Amino acid sequence: MKATQVAEIAGAHLFEPTPYADERGFFCRTFDADVVRSAGLDPDAFVQDSLSRSVRGVLRGLHLRSGAGEAKLVRCSYGRIFDVVVDLRPDSPTYLGRAFFELSGETQATLYIPAGCAHGFQALTETADTSYRIDRPHDPAEDVTIAHDDPELAIPWPLPVTSMSQRDREAPGLAEVLKRRES
To answer: Could you name the active-site residues (predicted)?
Structure first.
């Protein structure tokens, strides 16, 4: 497994395993505490695993947590997703930086997203399962959502949006979210 820093987002890492494939399918390690530790992260910090299943065109995000934020490891375990990270940490050297990835069940790559960054994705296949490993229990009172189509972010979503939650449809733009955070 190889760990690579993401240039556009300070503190973000992409973990790429080496799947072993044969006539049965494949096998790969999707989490390795030693590799995570070598990237400067605490592998024991993660306290919750979650899974979402989406159909082609579904968009989830852009989400982040207020307060202490939430760091997470994200992996598409089945299918393919277009994954987006936006750095919203005012003290970060990559503040307002954006990074885009295609995560897939074929590669099993995992993306580490630091606390204070917004995250979203769109399912590119008929079924896409996305796994999350989160560093603190979820508290809905801390949920923050940013409009996926905010022109300031200009995210190049690859497909028309077929479905999203009501919360995501009604999300404010980036300027409004940043203004709320300052007050």
So the answer is: 63, 132
- Pairing, β 48-54 against β 143-145: unpaired
Distant-in-sequence, close-in-space partners of 64: CB < 8 Å, separation ≥ 6: 70, 88, 116, 117, 118, 119, 144, 146
Helices (H), 111-170: 166-169
Kindly report the pTM of this predicted structure.
Answer: 0.94
The predicted structure's pLDDT at residue 180: 87
**Pairing state of beta strands 117-123 and 59-65?**
antiparallel
Total residue count of the chain as it appears in this document:
183
Domain definitions of the chain by residue range: 2-182
Please answer whether residues 94 and 162 qualify as being in contact, where contact means their C-beta atoms are separated by less than 8 angstroms.
no
Q: Are 111 and 103 in contact (CB under 8 A)?
A: yes
Q: What is the pLDDT of residue 138?
A: 87
Q: What pLDDT is recorded for position 37? A: 95
Name the residue type at position 50.
Answer: S
Domain 2-182: CATH architecture, name and number where available:
Sandwich (2.60)
Of the candidates 138, 132, 97, the residue with the CA atom closest to the CA atom of residue 118? 97
CA angle at 102 for the pair 116 and 94, rounded to the nearest 5°: 30
CA distance 109 to 89: 24
Catalytic residues: 63, 132
In the predicted model, residues of the chain with pLDDT beneath 70 are none
Q: Which amino acid is at 78?
A: Y
